[in-house]
Q: What sequence folds into this?
């Protein structure tokens, strides 16, 4: 007797209950994490949530010509983008417009205000020695002088640390003889600390604010600069905006800045000793000894030499001329004092909060713009138009989903229940992941991302159709449902994987070669494609295996979508032994 030919390898049923339990546990865990995080809705982009659009116009520095070129503009875009994204702002867009404009779109969110401040702070970063410091606020009403004196008495008890070895914590509380307000602390490096905690000085006391402003004690400025310094009111935003206009880095200048108490002070500053290009990196960290927020700076090779030379000179001066001011856009971001020579690494400490330390670190890291920019316009983007477009997009998506469901019900009947359940699971996974990815990687949902999610409906439905058609092909061949499901799965699985791989590859390439909102479309398409594989393997196939055991599907009910008569199935395949002699039983068509 001839041995029967081997058919296609049949896939093992496995344990469908285990796969279903796994994906349901994962869904519950993701949903629980979403509620525990306090974020139950995805972050929205500027086109849906609104925000701020800032137009920056490039200007040549004094003495520079032809500095506005594509190379410098692209460098500025990269630095501004890093600066804004360094704050964790989601989906901020930075792009050039024309030859000399940069457009910055900041979505409405938690850090929008900080981002707006740093985007507007677009001048070059300079380190300048401090020549003198005075109160930048107008003289108070004389009637308030008594209360001011009482406040000063309370401040006299505050101690200022002096330079000590890093391990000598006890000496850090020893008060120095004199001091001057220096916002945001001291500089520390190479195991040494440099004094900078603000202490009251005579010119800042309320009783002395009415007296003439002191002149610089070293390298006096010109009479014109001294006149501007005396007249400067740092509480006036218009005056602050004009400070330093037209001043070259090699010239003395005046500037404003806030001290730790939040009070405005004005400075006379010497020529710039270093600029932002000399800073290699800056990070906001927590000092392990004090537990306070500090900013660690690392300089380049050339910057280290300049910084060492500068701090060597400053450490020999008396306050306030032992301070160096970190100046950005004509405003003093920090003015730590130095009592010892510092080199390649420095730590700025003081009354920092986490936000203020991160702000200063971002300024130091990303402040070296090759051009000066001025705010040409600042407009608020209303989410109304985006809301209308989102509403229209959601209606279109709902119509498309309804048409898909109607098609599944009409054509696949009972099988449509499996498809609809799979679509619901896929939608739940997509929503929870989008919500959790908001705070995790600053993912935001914009209109292109919504389009990507709508396109994913078709990709997911296509996987179901491929599997269902393979199962029905096996039923048409005369096989019962349970073996038909297991025989159909290997071929359907291969087709689904190839199809999803192509979709994911297209999404990955699109994400890499594009910028802005198009990346939102590519990211969403890639995410939903991966989820399609997860849902089909861990939910659709196991659920189909379980349903094949139910009489409604196994017996081919006319509403099951697997009715053999409606599918035009062949008679059931039966294998019989061939009788000896002249008589022979039916022959399997596969063996004929």
A:
């Amino acid at each position: 007797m001839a041995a029967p030919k081997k058919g296609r390898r049949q896939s093992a049923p496995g344990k469908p209950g285990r796969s279903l339990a796994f994906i349901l546990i994962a869904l519950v865990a993701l949903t629980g994490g979403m509620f525990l995080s306090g974020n139950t809705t995805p972050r929205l982009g500027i086109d849906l949530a609104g925000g701020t659009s800032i137009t920056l116009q490039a200007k040549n520095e004094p003495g520079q010509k032809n500095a506005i070129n594509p190379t410098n503009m692209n460098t500025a875009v990269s630095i501004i983008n890093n600066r804004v994204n360094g704050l964790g702002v989601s989906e901020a867009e930075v792009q050039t417009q024309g030859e000399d404009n940069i457009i910055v779109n900041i979505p409405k969110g938690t850090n929008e205000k900080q981002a707006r401040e740093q985007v507007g702070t677009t001048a070059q970063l300079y380190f300048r020695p401090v020549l003198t410091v005075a109160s930048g606020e107008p003289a108070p009403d004389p009637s308030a002088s008594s209360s001011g004196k009482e406040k000063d008495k309370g401040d006299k008890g505050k101690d200022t640390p002096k330079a000590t070895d890093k391990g000598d914590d006890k000496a850090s509380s020893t008060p120095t003889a004199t001091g001057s307000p220096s916002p945001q602390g001291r500089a520390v490096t190479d195991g040494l600390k440099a004094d900078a905690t603000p202490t009251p000085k005579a010119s800042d006391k309320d009783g002395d604010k009415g007296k003439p402003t002191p002149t610089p004690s070293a390298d006096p400025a010109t009479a014109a600069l001294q006149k501007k310094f005396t007249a400067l009111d740092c509480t006036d935003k218009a005056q602050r905006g004009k400070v330093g206009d037209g001043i070259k880095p090699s010239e003395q200048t005046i500037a404003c800045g806030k001290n730790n108490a939040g009070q405005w002070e004005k400075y006379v500053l010497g020529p710039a000793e270093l600029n932002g290009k000399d800073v290699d990196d800056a990070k906001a960290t927590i000092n392990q000894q004090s537990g306070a927020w500090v900013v660690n700076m690392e300089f380049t090779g050339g910057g280290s030499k300049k910084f060492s030379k500068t701090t060597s000179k400053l450490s020999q001066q008396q306050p306030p001329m032992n301070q160096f001011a970190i100046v950005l856009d004509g405003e003093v971001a920090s003015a730590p004092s130095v009592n010892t020579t510092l080199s390649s690494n420095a730590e700025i400490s003081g009354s920092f909060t986490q936000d203020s330390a991160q702000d200063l670190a971002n300024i130091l890291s990303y402040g070296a713009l090759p051009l000066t920019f001025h705010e040409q316009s600042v407009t608020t983007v209303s989410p109304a138009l985006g809301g209308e477009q989102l509403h229209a997009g959601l209606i279109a998506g709902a119509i498309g989903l309804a048409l898909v469901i109607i098609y599944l019900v009409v054509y696949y009947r009972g099988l449509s229940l499996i498809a609809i359940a799979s679509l619901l699971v896929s939608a739940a996974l997509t929503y929870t992941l989008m919500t959790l990815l908001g705070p995790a990687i600053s993912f935001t949902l914009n209109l292109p991302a919504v389009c990507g999610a709508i396109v994913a409906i078709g990709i997911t439905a296509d996987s179901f159709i491929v599997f269902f058609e393979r199962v029905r092909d096996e039923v048409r061949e005369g096989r019962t449902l349970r073996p038909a499901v297991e025989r159909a799965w290997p071929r359907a699985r291969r087709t689904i994987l190839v199809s999803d791989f192509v979709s994911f590859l297209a999404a990955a390439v699109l994400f890499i070669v594009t910028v802005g909102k198009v990346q939102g479309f590519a990211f969403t398409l890639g995410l939903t494609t991966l989820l399609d594989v997860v849902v089909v393997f861990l939910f659709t196939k196991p659920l189909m295996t379980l349903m094949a055991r139910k009489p409604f599907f196994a017996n081919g009910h006319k509403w099951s979508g697997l009715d053999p008569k409606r599918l035009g199935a062949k008679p059931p395949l039966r294998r019989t032994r061939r009788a000896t002699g002249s008589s022979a039983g039916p022959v399997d068509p596969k063996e004929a």
Notes: Residues 481-513 form the longest helix (33 residues). The CA atoms of residues 402 and 408 lie 10 Å apart.
